[in-house]
Amino acid sequence: MNGTKSSDILVAGAGPAGMIAALAFAGAGFSVVLAGPPAQPEDRRTTALMMPSLTFLKELGLFDALVREAAPLGAMRIVDATSRLVRSPTVTFRASEIGEEAFGYNIPNAHLLSCLEAALREHGAIEWREELVSGYRLSDAGAEAALGGETIDAKLVVAADGRASPAREAAGIRTHRHGHVQSALVLNFAHAREHGGISTEFHTETGPFTQVPLPGRRSSLVWVVRPETASRLMAMDDGPLSREIEERMQSMLGKIEVEPGRQVYPLSSAMPSRFGARRVALVGEAAHVFPPIGAQGLNLGVRDIQDLVATARASRDDPGAPAALLRYDARRRPDIMARSSAVNMLNYSLLSDFLPAQFIRSAGIGLLAGFAPLRGFFMREGLRPGAGWRHIFGGRVTEPSRASGEEVRR
Ligand SMILES: Cc1cc2nc3c(=O)[nH]c(=O)nc-3n(C[C@H](O)[C@H](O)[C@H](O)COP(=O)(O)OP(=O)(O)OC[C@H]3O[C@@H](n4cnc5c(N)ncnc54)[C@H](O)[C@@H]3O)c2cc1C
Question: Which of 147, 192, 313, 357 is 20 to 30 A from 170, alpha carbon to alpha carbon?
Answer without folding.
Answer: 313
